[in-house]
């Protein structure tokens, strides 16, 4: 018997909201970030336009995947992804495995008719990503490569500023992703994050950001000393710039950032201060005494990742009647790193459930493939010590 | 029939983890922040030491409270909090109502034997908070006033630095909470956030922060022009400082911050850059060439809100075997405003479930009452234009 | 015989430029700063409108004053200021002595018909400054108290922004001057800058800045623990604020700054970043996406201490035909601390030589006296632990 | 007859201080900066170790050069530099002409036995600078190329930190010099600073800074779109980096800066905040909770451009008995852009007068030539779109 006065939750508000079954492959850092997104979307993006249902998580080590299922609230788990892909309750395949496992499972998922979300870098090289792109095209499924930083409110603001023409013509892009030790490694201890090639794990973010904000890249000229990537790039537009990815920069901690200069203004941003965009707009009045970079805290209602105009543009949607700023927190309440993933995954689920485009705000497999083509050109350039024109 | 290869989630890992039934009163901004905490704790603080169960949410307007129950996943709702307090499934009463409703429901909840979490300011004045404190003492229930900023990793780091004696003797505390318009109000439109008294809504945060970091306040001397609070304070230790709360500072957006000076070092922090603590330590070597404030990005494993030492100190806990840094994200991945609430509520639930103290990291009703006593002294001082000794 | 092709310097350009004989009392830190100003003005403020002539420097210790005369290029020296005041070649008496010696020599100088420039604080209390003010009024000489920070380009920009009404009505002023150790004092070593009362040496700067930007102060309420000054102030306009002066803040080094909030905007500034003014202007367009503090590097031609409009307003002056930005360096070339003194002293010499007003940009003895009256009220308030209305 | 009590300046302190006759070619922006240095050195670097005497200034337009002589206090002027080079009173030739005039007059000056100070870039290409270097070598005269930023206290601190090994092995250098418009150019108005090649005027500063801090450059790979320079560089040490020089970055104003990463630490600096060096040192203690970039305000006595150790090392010098920090201002009093030139020119005059080496702190003609060789390689690389090994 229910306690007196207690009314059980009514599901009415959720009636008719499309549900999407999720099957995730992998459960480490990115598994945590994506699972957090699926669990947060239902109450944070409100009124609801899509509801993820956590069907299954998959991994080879049963003990671990079982714990992950319990932890994140998946209804169950698989230890074989091919079996998971047969599960008819699953519409969305989310690939959060280590980089070398991005390719084949994603292709298999597309072949099984699942919509595919794949972590970045999309593949190990453009041969892989080319096949992945062909697979989703052939299957006609929605697809997104998880370049989550596109969905930071400050990056979205940068995109909007550029799209409105407020910077004029883009001329110069400076992008970097720098990491480094904080603590001196002891004897016999390998340096954390010190080895390996920075290009795919973090350089891919810079390449995607460059393309997102300044357009496609036409030619590259690169050095790759000791796993670091330093590259000069020419954009298709005639703009130019630099891309740097380095995991040996003491004191740097996830410092992914850009500086972008146009004929009428400039922007800069850094991931460790992700709620702020620095915006300079050339003054029209030569007597202006207050020219300077504006330190824009991107937390106003007009800044929200889902902007009012976009919402209002959904004619007939019950979102139209809502005030702006429903998502996340009021002005001045800063957002954390995980919001990029949450926003990105909402965007993808909404695209599937309500048949909206993933592009241009989300990175499609076309974008993920393009990043791989550019990465390959960077590797070739570094090897041959000359400029390489990026294949079309 | 289950799909082939699918194993349903096993609950084994959750066996024996204490469960706490939650009943929340209110559902607006703070209801969203607290509900988000209850929904995030189960998978973010892992392995689990407590599991909240969202029994009911309560509000007078059925349409709204029903929507909130659906949105945040409460099992049901009440429209009468006194009835909710009779619900035996509920162990924790969470009061997120507007300030004038903090007092009586919290007292009733204590009387009903519920542990009580109450939003700040704890009451409208010290008469109210005195009665609230008496009620929880009499009932012997756990209690916490939701001064969430204590649980920001950077604030916790500040506390640790002070407790280790790294600043020497604290001498000077400068605390403020400043808000303001970004957009000029149109004709006939009242200024957002412009009116009313800043002391209780935001000044209470500054008073609590002052006490948390610099100790109790012995005397105050204040002005309260136009709803603003400007106060000078003397601490019991002999330290001194200023407290300012103002909602009419254009361009300020949730700028809660402090600067604290001791004989051996200084700290400063701002809520809109909440992942950083500025730390200055007086050099011992007069020939040091690198003295300066350190810009500490508080995202290292050693910085996590639940620090390794504390966890390791829980003998017999299965947490002991875990590596540091399990909570939240790896270094350099910044945390958002809501993490303060999530961390705070985890702290309270853990205190209840595992019989650990709320103090000194959490603010008890004793702390909440003390803030009210000091607020009353500030009001009296402003009225009488003289220093008021804060009653013991 | 001159070398072939060599033409000796022609004095023609200097003909008719008024010359002012300088007699300085004191030769330590401020003597260096002022002497540097006199030596820099002739070629930096060009075309010249006044030429200082360094007649004599005065001090009691002959060895030191003789060295100072040689070092700074004074034509000679005195060891008795009363004798120096008889020197008919001297028109300007510059008092850079320790604070207790500001009063009597300045009065004597006025009585001797010299224009008087006196370092801050103008006197030890308002009794002294009252007599000093009476003396210069009676003598009818030009007078300035060396509140040099008024002449920083960023402070001048702040003044201009306020005077143009861009901030609306000023509501809140937060001013401070904080100093502290960088190095731990060894055993038996007294703390540098640690002792004494901060009010006169540095608090006077904050009081003058408050009056310069926000108008006169009507009432004060202060604490002075351990030589520190913490005060709440009410302005004649109804605005309010805080004033803090403290020499025990580790890591702070000459951090004189202010934050000022009006109904339409806000400003902030810090002396250790003196070329920048942070400017927030409330947006008129609610859909603006780029609201934020502007980081204004105050080095544009329109920012120069001597602004074009002022120069152009000198009808008949040969300055009129000059382009703006003649003084100091091109945009982006930052100015140092000493420029405040150089600009201030130029302002005073120009006022004397060309009969222009010292006020409102320069601080007159009236301003210096007013600062002392307010300082006295602060001391009284701290002693009596109550608000003191500042005497008119 | 002298006034009573007046003692004329005694020259005793200056007896024996070597005097150097200066002859300057050019009188625009750099003429102002250098003349300011010559006029400031005699009283700022005290006790004096060298005294410049401003013999003559030279330019083709008599009206202008005559005005400059009067303005800056040169004893006279020439309109033909070859005649000036015959003036036996002149020991130092200072070439502050536009870049294309750096070569021949400097060579002629060396041939005439004058010590030569030449503005940067030293020549238009390495053919010119090679001849200039040969000329000073043949003549055996002291020589310096005016890379003034080496003499900023923060840059000197960076050099000291590196030389002490505090950064470990240098791995990555990121240098840039960015300029841009603040105001939109009107119709028919050419963009300020927008045209021309950025490499020589500002890129040369970045190349010199790279060499000063990270050692010589072995190979370059560059793009030069629209007058901009973007280059990747390999250092002889195996370190790598980027060099960017761009005059089309809106909002940037003289933003010359670097970021430098070693195995044990990192540094960064920007010319528009020239008194601060950001210093990160890898912590030795893994439990350190205060790791972070230190914001070092480079104004302590231990930071002065002329450091105490260097002064003390001059045995027999009367400087030895002086306390550190004599030069410029006390801690916390920030220095302006012109101090770089003043410090640099003092360094050069002291090197001449007291037979001390210009290198390694000053840039010799060898350094200036090397910058030109690297610049030529950059131009070739951009033309050929491939890496160019810099000739030895």
Low-pLDDT residue intervals, each spanning 5 or more residues of chain A: 188-196, 307-325
Radius of gyration of chain A: 22 Å
Number of helices of chain A: 10
Classify the oligomer.
homotetramer
Strand order of the largest sheet of chain A: 15-14-13-12-8-11-10-9-16
Order of helices and strands of chain A: EEHEHEHEHEHEHEHEEEEEEEHHHE
Kindly report the average pLDDT value of chain A: 90
Instruction: Report the portion of residues of chain A in β strands.
Output: 15-25%
Total count of strands of chain A: 16
> How widely separated are the two ends of chain A?
68 Å
Q: Outline of chain A, from the CA principal axes?
A: globular
The major pleated sheet of chain A works out as:
9 strands, mixed
Helix content of chain A: 25-40%
**Which structural class should the secondary elements of chain A be placed in?**
alpha/beta
The most extensive interface between chains reads: A-B, 70 and 70 residues
Characterise this structure.
4 copies of one chain form a homotetramer. Chain A is globular and about 75 Å long. Chain A has a 9-stranded mixed sheet with strand order 15-14-13-12-8-11-10-9-16. Helix content of chain A is about 30%, strand content about 25%. In chain A, helix 4 packs parallel to helix 5. The model of chain A is unreliable at about 190-195 and about 305-325 (pLDDT under 50). Chain A is an alpha/beta fold and about 400 residues long. Chain A contains 10 helices and 16 strands. Chains in contact: A-B, A-C, A-D, B-C, B-D, C-D. Chains A and B meet through strand 1, helix 1, helix 2 and strand 4 of A and strand 1, helix 1, helix 2 and strand 4 of B. Strand 1 (about 5-10) of chain A pairs antiparallel with strand 4 of chain B.
């Amino acid at each position: 018997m229910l306690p007196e006065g207690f009314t059980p939750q009514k599901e009415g508000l959720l009636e008719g909201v499309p549900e999407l079954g999720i099957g995730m492959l992998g459960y480490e850092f990115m598994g945590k970030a994506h699972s957090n997104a699926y669990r947060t979307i239902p109450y944070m993006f409100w009124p609801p336009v899509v509801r993820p249902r956590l069907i299954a998580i998959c991994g080879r080590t049963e003990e671990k995947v079982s714990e992950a299922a319990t932890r994140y609230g998946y209804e169950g788990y698989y230890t074989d992804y091919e079996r998971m892909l047969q599960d008819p309750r699953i519409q969305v395949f989310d690939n959060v495995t280590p980089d070398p496992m991005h390719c084949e499972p994603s292709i298999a998922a597309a072949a099984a008719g699942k919509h595919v979300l794949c972590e970045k870098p999309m593949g190990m090289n453009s041969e892989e990503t080319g096949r992945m792109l062909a697979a989703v095209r052939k299957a006609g499924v929605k697809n997104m490569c998880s370049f989550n930083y596109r969905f930071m409110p400050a990056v979205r603001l940068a995109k909007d500023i550029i799209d409105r023409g407020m910077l004029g013509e883009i001329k110069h892009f400076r992008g970097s992703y720098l990491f480094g030790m904080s603590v001196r490694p002891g004897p016999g201890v390998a340096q954390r994050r010190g080895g390996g090639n920075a290009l795919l794990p973090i350089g891919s973010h810079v390449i995607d950001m460059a393309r997102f904000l300044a357009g496609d890249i036409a030619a590259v000229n690169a050095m790759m000393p000791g796993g670091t990537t330093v590259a000069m790039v020419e954009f298709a537009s005639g703009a130019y710039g630099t891309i740097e990815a380095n995991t040996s920069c003491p004191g740097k901690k996830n410092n992914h950032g850009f500086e972008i200069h146009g004929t009428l203004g400039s922007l800069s941003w850094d991931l460790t201060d992700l709620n702020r965009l620095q915006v300079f707009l050339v003054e029209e009045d030569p007597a202006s005494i207050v020219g300077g970079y504006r330190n824009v805290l991107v937390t106003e209602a007009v800044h929200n990742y889902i902007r009012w105009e976009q919402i209002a543009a959904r004619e007939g949607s019950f979102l139209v009647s809502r005030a702006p700023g429903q998502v996340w927190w009021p002005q001045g309440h800063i957002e954390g790193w995980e919001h990029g993933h949450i926003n990105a995954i909402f965007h993808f689920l909404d695209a599937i459930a309500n048949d909206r485009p993933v592009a241009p705000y989300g990175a499609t497999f076309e974008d993920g493939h393009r990043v791989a083509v550019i990465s390959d050109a960077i590797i070739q350039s570094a090897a041959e010590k000359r400029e390489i024109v990026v294949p079309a």
